Structures are given as C-alpha cells and as structure tokens.
Amino acid sequence: MSPFACLHFSNHDQLVLKDHSTKPAGFVVVNSGRLKWKQNEQQREIVPNQFAFLTQELLTSSIETDSDFEATLILLEYEVLLGFGSAPDSIVIHQPVCSFKAEPFEHQLLATLITSSELSECKAEVQHSLVSALLSHTMDKYPSLLNAVQLVTLVSFTEKVSLFMDARLDKEQSLPMLAEHLQVSVTTVKRRLAEEGLSFTEMLKKKRIYKGATILRSGRTSVTEVASLCGFNSATHFNNAFKSIYGCTPKVFRRERRTP
C-alpha cells in the first residue's frame, strides 16, 4: 500500500479528501500562481519556489480561491507521520506555520515523489523510503515541522484504533495485530475500548459493512467482489453481516438505495 496519495488541484477545482481519512496532512507544492490560506487569524501563502505542510482541516476549510493557482498535494498516511512524531513535550496552542523554501534538493525529492505516484512499477517500499527521506531532511532543516507532525498524530486511543482498521479493511485483522501496532497488550486494548462501550469485533464489522455500502451505492461491482474488498472471506459471510446492520441483503440495498 502506498504511503501517500498524490492529488492535483487548483482554485477552480474543489479538493475532495473524504476518501483519504487515514491521511491527516501532507505537503503542498505550488506549480503556478499563489496559493493562499488563513491560519492563526493571518493570511499565509506559498508560490512555486516554496512548499508547505498543511493539515486536512486547513486544506478543506482555509484555502482561498481569490487568486489563480495550480498545486499538487502529497497527502501522507497517518502511520508514516506517526513514525516521525512522538508525543509533544509541551502543549502548543496553535498549529505551527510550516512553509518552506524549496531548495534544489527538496524540489527534487518532491518531484520524485510525485513522479513515483504515476508509475505503476514503483514499489511501495521505494515510496516509503522517499517519504522518509523527505520528512527526515525537512525536519532536520526546519524543526517546526516536527511540532506540526506531533500535533497531527496526537489523537485519542479510539482514533488510533479506527485509523489502524481503516488502513487495512480489505486485509486480515486481529486483536493481537492491533495490540502489537499500538505497542500495548491485548488486555489493554479490550479494556480501553470497553471503557467507551466499544469492542474490536463490532468496530471492525461496522467499518467493513459501511465500506461495502459505499461501494454498493457507487457502482455495479458484484457482491462477491464487494465482500472481498471489505475483508470478508465469503459472500455469505458478507450477506449475513450486512443484513445485521442494514436489515436487508446487499442486492436489495443496492437496488433500493444506490445513487444515480
């Protein structure tokens, strides 16, 4: 799985990030024009010789469209960012302003990342190395980036569980795998979820079914394929789980509720 998503946008094209819930922030590169946004009650901007690290919240609510720009967003996976941002030593009230000058080396790293997203033969391992190189280099040169990454990865226990599940809904998941990822015991995971009235099994089932419902609404993918995409080992298992949530079979759901 690629550690990032590469999205092109402009002041004329709305940036839609709803399908990237596991990627909370990323680097924005301006290809032409001036990209402006509001942060900490002040107007900020970047131009082609700069790049910025912006959260999804800023990208979806603060980008201004009163000036022309074309830009590329390298949206990073939560787990990648988590590897670089441990818990902050002190509380930061505002998200730090993270805009940087794109020197030749940074420019080349960013351009290589963007190119790698367009090459099907580029392995995820190579992309991970490129992302790690960019983060390591930029953090070393601009310490404010570490603070920004720390804030992005400072989420609740339940959100960490949710992000873990979302990133691999089509793959096998288990409590021991989750506990290893969070570096706690299985007993601790169960206890922490139970404190909020949740359970691993029920959370995972609902997430997989909700993903299945989204796929059913948006196309004509067969029920067997949808079951596989959502991590079920058989269409029968998917049918039974789906009916327990929505009260009808996937076929009936798609026929009656699929959007045009």
Question: What's the helix and strand layout?
Answer:
Elements: E1 4-10, E2 25-33, E3 35-39, E4 42-46, E5 50-55, H1 56-61, E6 63-64, E7 69-76, H2 78-82, E8 99-101, H3 104-117, H4 124-141, H5 144-152, H6 157-166, H7 175-182, H8 186-194, H9 200-218, H10 223-229, H11 235-246, H12 250-257
Antiparallel strand pairs: 1-7, 2-5, 2-7, 3-4, 3-6, 5-8
Write down how many β-strands occur, each being a DSSP E stretch of 2 or more residues. 8
How far is the N terminus from the C terminus? 31 Å
- Oligomerization category of the chains in this entry: single chain
| Tally of helical segments | 12
CATH architectural arrangement of the largest domain: Sandwich
The residue-averaged pLDDT reads 88
* CATH fold node name of the largest domain: Jelly Rolls
Organism: Vibrio breoganii
Protein name: Helix-turn-helix transcriptional regulator
InterPro entries: Homeodomain-like_sf, HTH_AraC, HTH_AraC-typ_CS, Tscrpt_reg_AraC-type_HTH
Keywords: DNA-binding, Transcription, Transcription regulation
